[in-house]
Amino acid sequence: MIYIALCDDDISFLKIAKEIIERYMQSCDYVCNIDLYQSGNDLLREKTKLEMYDLVFLDVDMPEKSGIDVAREIRNTNNKITIAFITAYINYALDGYKVNAIRCILKDSSTLQESLQECMDVALIQKAKKEATIEKKFREGTRRICIEDIIYVESYLHLLHFHVYVGNEIAQFTLYDKMDDMEQQLSSYDFFRIHKSYFANLKYVQKVDRYQLTTANNIKLPIGQARYNRVKEAFLEYCGRI
Amino acid sequence: MIEHIYGIVYTIIFILFSRLFVSCFVHEKKANKKIVGYMLVFLWMFSDYVMSVWLNQNMFAKACAIVVIGAIFTCFLYDTTPVKSVVLMMLYSGICFASDYFVYLFTGNIITQDVNDNVSDAFISLLPGTVSQIIIFFVIMLFCRKFKYKDMDRVDNGVWLRLLVIPLFTMTAVISILFYFQDGTMMERKNTLVFVAVGMLLINIYVFYMLRDILVRESQLQRDKVLLEQAEHTVKMYQYISENYEKQKKREHEYRNQLFVLRNLIERGECLQAHDLMQQYTEDADSDANLIDTNNVIINTILNTKYMEMKKRNILFIVQIGDLSMLPIKNRDMVVVLTNIIDNALEACEKVKDKKRYIKLKVQNEHDNLIISCENSFDGIVHRNKDQYLTTKQESEFHGIGICNIKEVASKYNGDCIIRTEEFRFRIIVSIPF
Asked: Which of A215, B119, B152, B410 sees the fewest Cβ atoms within 10 Å?
């Protein structure tokens, strides 16, 4: 079940877009719930509903409040929600605000349907990633953590140390397990074995140097010499995903 | 008599080899005229031979003299400092001594003491000497391959392997001559044998120079091809820009007409008509509009023109761009990379019949790197020749260089380029650091 919000001052466009998305979701056998808003402020007022939405489409050229400002306000409190812009022009300024929009969809009627469908595909993949969790009996207690929140896993003294984002803090959880087994379990996500004892989430990697990797919060992790080339390629592949 | 001849030949070979060796590491002085160069080399050979005859008794002094003379002439002939010259000459002398010693160890066990000391002594040392020369030649060729002709990577390794056959054959031939030397009857033929051995060595050298010229010319040809493609792309780019300019001028002209008509209508109070006309005008404007703006005129031109192209061919185009006014690479190279990537994607999409055709392009600055990433649908068949991507196009010789060009630009700026092919999805990702 995916919760979607469409925000555009042009009501005819809202209707067209809603129809395209509903039809596509039906063909994918996916249930979706779409809410329509004609102004950014209306959307921002519904704070409880905002927590629920998985995906928000924002029109950039709205008279009252531009889609970009709406996006920034949403991002102030919510980093998980997926944002897509709808615009007449693809402008470099849209990227400058760093709101992490997955797509900028052109209001071009000839390609609108395909663009929206493609956007839905990507949004569904993102939703699946956000909801992927793993439950383990850590020494600190049994916990269910979001796989996306794991920054890296370190193997030390036969223990696995998970470094995970909990809210805005980084917490550590320890577990008796083998690195290889963990690697197996997380193999279908964006992780990479950068070192015999380290397993990092490419989402948080910022820089790959010779034999050292920098992640968010300036954490530096070592890279195994023999693995360096593959780490570089994996990181590049991750950066290049569209 | 024959020792003198051999001595001279040996000196000539020694100097040729040391020239080859030194040229692996330093460049020739461009200022020297050809004739001056030849005279210097001749002088070098002359002084070397004189020294080696004069100091024949004292090995150490002879070695020093040769190194010093070599260093002096290297300084004249090459763009290098005296210290470097001395070091290089010492290195080369070291290689010679090592090779001689190795052969001596090997043949010391073979040549028996029964042979007549006086006359044959000289001959006995000639053959192993030749083997030693061939070994040195081998080593120098390896050095050349490693250091001098690095940029001829594109030329197949197979060619080099074929090159190696000749010295290998020569070495085995000369060594087998050495073996037969033990048999007393061969002693009469010693002149011929030595002549044959030395002759083979000289042939080796000649063939080496010849092949080297061929290889150099081939790599030049390749480079020219690449430059030609780049030039074509630049020309295309200028065509795009001038076409755009023409369109812009026309549009301006039309605007003036349209405003004139609208003003008239409004003055006459025909507001409804004016409104309808406005609708029409804005619709027309949309179809020609430049929809993508990256803050970089050249990239805008390319992307917008390609976008129109894709609309015509019914290919879905998804772009993610950022502010590209500051690039870590020259505009010319950006054009090469972008146009090659998009053209490749377009061609691949053309071949997709029954699936959705799409091209996703991302050109953004991320974490101090310029990331250019393109994903497109394709029919699943990629032609590769080891590291090179061959083309599926008709004139395969000329195309397929596109991806080579992209990789070249990437490595030129110390960036990376990777390519991933999955069943129906082709991805190329380039990253260039700031």
From this structure: B119
Residues 6+ apart with CB under 8 A from B303: B292, B294, B319, B321, B338, B361
How many residues are present in chain A?
242
Q: What is the pLDDT, as a whole number, of residue B395?
A: 38
Angle in degrees, CA A201, B413, B153, rounded to 5: 105
What is the predicted ipTM?
0.92
In contact, B309 and B316? CB cutoff 8 Å: no
* A173: helix, strand or coil: strand
* Range A76-79, long-range pairs (CB < 8 A, 24+ positions): A78/A50, A78/A51
* Secondary element (H or E) of residue B326: none
Q: From the CA of A96, how many Å to the nearest CA of chain B?
A: 7
Q: How far is residue B340's CA from residue B404's CA, in Å, rounded to a whole number?
A: 10
Strand, helix or coil at B61?
A: helix
A-chain CB neighbours of B375 within 8 Å are: 242
Q: Between the CA of residue B38 and those of A81, B27, B156, what are the distances in Å?
A: 76, 16, 33
Q: How far apart are CA B434 and CA B427, in angstroms?
A: 23
Q: How far apart are CA A13 and CA A140, in angstroms?
A: 51
- In a 3-state reduction of DSSP, which class is residue A208? strand
Cβ atoms of B372 and B417 closer than 8 Å:
no
Confidence of residue A146 (pLDDT cuts 50, 70, 90): very high
Cβ neighbours, 10 Å, residue B401: 20
Residue A230, pLDDT > 60, answer: yes
Amino acid at the residue B323: D
For chain B, say whether A93 makes contact (Cβ under 8 Å): yes
What does the pLDDT read at residue B380? 67
Single out the residue of A19, A23, A112, A96 nearest to residue A59, CA to CA: A112
Q: Are A92 and B321 in contact (CB < 8 Å)?
A: yes
How confident is the model at residue A41, as a pLDDT?
Answer: 93
- Residue B434 structure tokens: 């700031």
**DSSP 3-state of B275:** helix
- CB contact B360 to A (< 8 Å): yes
Residues of chain B with pLDDT under 50: 112-120, 394-399
Higher-pLDDT residue of B270 and A236 is A236
Q: What is the model's pTM?
A: 0.66
Say yes or no for a CB contact (<8 Å) between A95 and B321. Answer: yes
In this predicted structure, the answer to whether residue A209 has a pLDDT above a threshold of 70 is yes
> Which position has the token pair 């700031």?
B434
Q: Which residues of A touch B322 (CB under 8 A)?
A: 92, 95-96
